[in-house]
């Protein structure tokens, strides 16, 4: 299936042109992107939901709202340098 470049950007989380410099959008791209912090002087929020009623269930942490995993929607990442660090009041 051929996807638009915008959908491919979303799939890999690519935000700037430099993320594609060494990648072809039709290849299976490894996580090799530039990590950008949240913009300063702008109020940023993260909203996440789950398909189930119990957030502690493993399936909800994996599936989340059906678009992205729950933790990813909140800007969390396994590598601390990649986390967006939303304050609790902004989630």
What order do the SSEs take from the amino end to the carboxyl end, as H and E?
HHH
Low-pLDDT stretches are none
Oligomer: single chain
Distance between the termini: 34 Å
Report the helical percentage. 10-25%
**Mind summarizing the main beta sheet?**
none
Could you name the key traits of this structure?
91 residues; 3 helices; 20% helix; mainly alpha
Task: Provide structural commentary.
The chain is mainly alpha-helical and 91 residues long. It contains 3 helices and no strands. It has helices spanning 5-12, 58-63, 70-73.
Tell me the layout of helices and strands.
Elements: H1 5-12, H2 58-63, H3 70-73
Summarize the structure.
This protein is mainly alpha-helical and 91 residues long. It has helices at residues 5-12, 58-63, 70-73.
